[in-house]
Amino acid sequence: MDQMYLSGGLIATDDMGVFVLAGSTVGGGSAINWSASIRTPQHVIKEWCNDHELELFDSKLYQEALDIVCEKMGVQSQVQEEGFNNEILRRGCQELGYPVNNIPRNSPPNHYCGWCCFGCKDGRKRGSTETWLVDLVNSGNGAILTGCEAIKVLHKRKKGRRDRNTATGVAFKFEHGGGKEIGFVESKVTIVACGALCTPKLLKRSGLKNVNIGENLHLHPVAMAWGYFPDSQVFDGWPEREKKSYEGGIMTAMSTVVAEFNKSGYGAVIQTPALHPGMFSVVMPWVSGKDIKHRMSRFSRTAHVFALARDKGSGTVNAPPDSISYEMEALDENNLKIGLEKSLRILAAAGAEDIGTHHFKGKGLHVKKANLDEFERFVKEESSRPLRELSSAICSAHQMGSCRMGVDSKQSVVNQMGETWEVEGLFVVDTSVFPTALGVNPMVTVQAIAYCTSQSILQVLRRKKVEHKN
Fold first, then answer.
1. Where does the Glucose-methanol-choline oxidoreductase N-terminal domain lie (predicted)?
2. Domain segments of the chain as ranges
């Protein structure tokens, strides 16, 4: 994690209320994400078009971009063998009559890898390091420099222009001879894709003054429930004795039972995480040394199911000082509570012996020994507890919106072409341009937006070429 995640995976909001995971490696988030490749939901497209007046998302170009991105990544929805966590999520949903569907993934049906959160070791997950970046290098039109940090976007006022500067390149630090040196790259257009946490910082360091930079940060807050499944179960062969929580496709099943897709669009989806021993020990509540040892001894047979909220509330990326301010709105907290309730029921219905949440009190319920009243009381009490003020481990693996796209500079940082309002020829192509939270895994959406922005950039370059000839 120290090599592939921003700040070694040790990031939190300034009040420590949300643990934040963000990719910081060649390929960015696509190198360490969990393979989910979900198209932009139709209700989100409708909201971005109608409420935010962004015609791009209802255009033929954007639909074409979604198709091209999914084809490029080999997105498909089949799964040959399901892993421990997803098998439990699916079984629990089926027992309760909750909707459950296969998650489209950028990996083949037989990709049984629980380690893609550290990069796909066999390259079968088709992130940008297996697709777009390969095309870049093979074309001969670009190179990849690792261990670099962008310091500042360079820009200056053109003769005859009074309204805004024009981007001319980037200053950056790079590793050389065991130390750091400063380099400069001149460019006809400059593209920033540092992610929703780092792009605002770079723009501010570069002298941009737009008040929306760093604002409107959405985190897709996640709250988890756990269930313990001993090796021997009352269900014959369920789950398979040899299956472990850290093996198999990280995400292959999803429930939209509380997603509100057909209503407000602001609810929670239910999925499964990648939790290896280090992260498992961090998010599990600390009651005592003896208790955490007991929990760790059951790690390989402890399943996790989480609720991910499409957060209506937002926070701020501050720079300087470097920090993240974020507080959940009551609506988002309530959606997570409802999702937690469903998650506990799913785990119990799938056959868990013990269930619980990550609330700091560390309470659990032995399902087999509890009667119906005791079970209902436990589920309602645990899912109604406050999720703010450090009472429970809340996590974020998706950050977006901190340089959002819009139709005017008073409400946004970039226009529909992805170009900043302040500096001509400076484009942003990462999740920071999302107008709102997305509500599902953002990989397909961000790549589709990047594809559309690339078409705008090509138009700019063609225009510059014509102007240069004249």
1. 1-222
2. 1-470
